[in-house]
Amino acid sequence: MTLLLLGLLILVIAVQVLRWFAHTDIKTVRKTINWSGILLILLVIAGLGITGRFGAAMAALIALVGWIWRILSMVQMGRQFRDMFRGKAEAGSGEGASAPGAPSATGSMTVEEAARILGVEMGASEDDVKAAYKRLMSQIHPDKGGTDYLAAKVNQAKDVMLKKLRR
């Protein structure tokens, strides 16, 4: 009977916490989670100190420092990837003017973007497009220290421009 009442109490507390979580802004939730974590760590340290196992716990914590460092590094990398992809999405959805070479909102390259990437005029000839392509690829090819992304964008720009010219 005691276990049933304890389980019921835990269930009621869990429902109340979930209700609070659903109706509270994210900054308050983050702050609460941070402070709850700090409080939990202090309670664990106090409990270990009272039971005489504080030294063993600190030895285990020191052994886990490498793993903790790795996890924090992965979290930081995840944030950088998130920011990088948010930047790409926002660059194409600005109010008309986007940075040279920025992807369009739809993901397909327009003729204007292709001309801007290659550095040619809109009415450039096929020879001008090919010359600009060769000049750029000699600078940004992955074998010469460039990136695959830039090389792919230049290739796509050349294809878009040549397709427009051949119509």
- Percentage of residues in helical conformation: over 70%
Distance between the termini: 82 Å
Q: How many domains make up the coordinates?
A: 2
As a whole number of angstroms, the C-alpha radius of gyration is: 29 Å
Q: Write down how many β-strands occur, each being a DSSP E stretch of 2 or more residues.
A: 0
Query: Ranges with pLDDT <50 over ≥5 residues?
Result: 88-106
- Which H/E pattern describes the elements? HHHHHH
Mean pLDDT: 80
Number of helices: 6
Would you tell me the structural class of the helices and strands?
mainly alpha
Largest sheet: none
As a percent range, the share of strand residues is under 5%
Shape: elongated
Multimeric organization? single chain
Per-chain topology:
Blueprint: H1 2-22, H2 26-51, H3 54-92, H4 111-118, H5 126-140, H6 148-166
Helix pairs in contact: 4-6, 5-6
Can you offer a commentary on this structure?
It is a single chain. This protein is an all-alpha fold and 167 residues long. The N and C termini lie far apart (82 Å). The protein folds into two domains: 27-91, no CATH class; 111-166, Helix Hairpins (Orthogonal Bundle). It contains six helices and no strands.
Summarize the structure.
The chain is mainly alpha-helical. It contains six helices and no strands.
Characteristic key phrases:
mainly alpha, Helix Hairpins, 6 helices, 0% strand, 2 domains, single chain, 167 residues
